[in-house]
Amino acid sequence: MYFMMKYRGVYLIAISGIVLNAFYFIYWYKKFGKEFIGHLLEIAPLEFALVLSTVPLGLLFASLYAEELRSAEKLKAALGVKDLFADIMRHDLLNSIGLIKGLSELMKDDPRFADVDDVDIIHRTAIKLEDQVKMAAKYAKLEALDKVELETVDVASMIDEAIESLRYQFSSKKITVENKIERGLMVKAAPYLKDVFYNILSNAAKYSPERGRVVIASEDSGEEVEILVKDEGPGVKDEYKEKIFQRFTRGGKEGVQGTGLGLAIAKRIIELHNGRIWVEDNWVENRDKEGQIHKKKQGSVFIVSIPKI
Questions:
Q1: C-alpha span between 244 and 260 (Å, rounded)
Q2: Rounded to two decimals, what is the model's pTM?
Q3: Residue closest to 196 by CA, chosen among 249, 145, 138
Q4: pLDDT tens, 274-285?
């Protein structure tokens, strides 16, 4: 009984076939009467053989269907165990890292360790590990999502919040940040969308030179709105323009801190919004002494395209 309930779809198909054959018999009997019975008796051995030949095939399909359901259940259980293991690992790792970070902070303030450079290295490494674990957990969570709940969001205000979160990073390098997006530009988005611009602007802060300039603007592209983030950093080489949106890829930049997951997370969030994200070269116009305008490649333009409301 349990097997029949569990794989009732197979039995419903079989019963449907029997019912259809019954209707087929009644219809032709009413139309031709006894002549149909005689014809049926003539072809009965052949029809019976055909019916019997379908039995092994039916059993094979039923077996494959049952095995597929069992495999799906095993996969679901395995994914559940994996998620549980990941949550436990994340929790335990963050606890251990927090302990190391806290102790290193105390040691930094202790005069006895004033001349020990390794304390500062331990503290910075603990912060980096903490960021990596949190970013990896966020990426795993986003990968498991099929869709997100959308709400009406003002793009300019959302980007202002991201800029404010990075105020120290920009001010420490005296970088000018201009948000040129007009108020009232509304899109349907999840709260996750703020993380996209936070990650892009965080990269702009890391790679921009001292006293650089970062500009955020928007363009109407028909059914979508494009948000452009322009910086004056070293730019992204052509061979890295797609790779930087993959996990743990950082465009060959050396000596810059980061987890290598920020843009991969940004791409996944944009995919959940049915949008696109890519990077182009930033071309800056300069005027020479004779008044001639020349364009030169300087920095990157990260473009996020999402559907309008």
A1: 8
A2: 0.63
A3: 138
A4: 999 999 999 877
